[in-house]
Design brief:
213 residues; cell membrane (chains A, B, C); 8 helices; mainly alpha; Trimeric intracellular cation channel family protein (chains A, B, C); membrane (chains A, B, C); transmembrane (chains A, B, C); homotrimer
């Protein structure tokens, strides 16, 4: 179990490092700035999760393999981006993969520590989405998670799907793969068709022009 | 003692959730974005406090009742706000209540862990004010705490008042209620009369127009 | 060893408090706002380091002497700044001193906990640079560390220099003083001659005007 979580989590860190590096390159950061944003995006969610769960060591402090994958992800992003400039899709694809993989590891770790279902869902969403929130704060943007892109909602739904499958006694690999693919697919559908949850004041958006979009 | 702290703390989380939800609705976030800001505002200060005190579990990880109160606060805010739009007062009232209740729980927990008085004051202020700081960072504003509104100052004074009453052997309910009411009343007075501490460069404010207000 | 780390670390907190206070005064914060930014800048990096290392208490929670030095640093900055207004150099000098001293304590603590070299470097850079990142986030700026000023790079090089000297069996005071002076000197050279690492898209900067500089 622990091994599978690690495997998924390393893949997630690789995908999120790419997403972070692309964002930082768009902001014209220097190479080390690009690596730092990639690092923060990749480990931010899991780090907060591990700090929230008392008596759990922060994952990348004890396992340096993550750092190698993040460096690899950053280098891939740099090579990749120079060939595919002006395409913003890759950011969303890797972000979606990272969200899916990390959300599920967060839920699994919550279950391992015997937390209540609602806390497992919150830990999953934190693990999946907080790295991206940190990335956006560091580049001084309103976090993408709040921009009516159904971001956290999908992570929450994916976490609930995992808990449901788990309750119904599904086992691996279905138990893990289905919620991960659900989250990735949902994110891509949402971006493709530009779906958003209604703002609670949709009718007023034209009146007040002060909102930063 | 522990029970009373919990009771106050839950009320504080309810008030701060409302304050967070109102801010997020003003920024036109989607419903889940509103909940996340409410959640972060409500638990941010206490979470940092619990992470700073080694060997203390994060309060909402072990007690899910907080999450229910935060959800209730968010729903109240949504219903409440739609009736009282364009009124910014509620934000300040609930923020003041949360600041008062949380500051005192922070000081009490510091005393429980045998920390020095200055650290109890800092923990109290972190517990009371950090959730609001996170709220403002997440919506990409300069935190309200820094906007010459005597915010942290009042929290610090309230914490010192609690420590003084404690030293003078006052007991509950006076020991708790007086500093909480002091903080709430001071905040409302400050907002009502628009009082602010002088900037250290008040005379220069017109010359340099670059400061973001 | 522990005593020397504390000594260096207290000097670092003093220097970073001055750097934080100057930034906050430039932003016209009220006196308590100035102290809070000074505090966060001074303890932010070490606090994150201590929270990342499981079973290590946060340094300023157990040792209140830091808080006294931060208060002293804030008062010095207020007196100092009023005499030397319009001079931005002091900010960089104290920031450089803090970066140097804190980076090395971070590396030393990583070694003490038997972490891998790469993690010692990361902990050193976090200890040295994260306080400044928090300072910039709180005043709603893109962190200086990302502004092509070779900031993190120098911290990383200083950390590697320390690990190399340590491997070559150099002992104190050379082991500590050389990397600290290296970091401070490099930062001042970089600022003096306005050196920056190339952006990964330097040629494109004129085309896209959306980047906030």
């Amino acid at each position: 179990m622990e091994i599978i979580i690690n495997y998924i989590s390393i893949l997630g860190s690789f995908a999120l490092a790419i997403s972070g590096a692309i964002t930082a390159m768009d902001k014209r950061f220097d190479p080390f700035g690009v690596f730092i944003i990639a690092f923060v995006t990749a480990v931010g969610g899991g780090t907060l999760r591990d700090m929230l769960i008392n008596d759990r060591s922060v994952f990348w402090i004890t396992q340096t393999s993550y750092i190698h994958f993040i460096i690899a992800g950053t280098i891939c992003a740099i090579i990749f981006k120079s060939k595919l400039d002006h395409i913003t899709k890759p950011l969303f694809i890797f972000d979606a993969i990272g969200l899916g993989l990390y959300t599920i590891t967060g839920v699994q770790i919550g279950l391992e520590y015997g937390l209540a279902a609602v806390n497992c869902v919150i830990l999953g969403t934190i693990t999946g989405a907080f790295g991206g929130v940190l990335r956006d704060i560091l580049v001084n943007e309103v976090p993408i998670i709040f921009k009516r892109e159904v971001y956290a909602t999908i992570s929450i739904l994916g976490a609930i799907l995992y808990l449901t499958l788990n309750k119904l006694h599904f086992i691996n690999p279905i138990l893990q793969i289905v919620p991960v693919l659900f989250i990735i697919a949902m994110r891509l559908v949402v971006i493709r068709y530009n779906i958003s949850l209604p703002s609670l004041y949709a009718d007023e958006r034209k009146k007040k022009g002060t909102t930063r979009e």
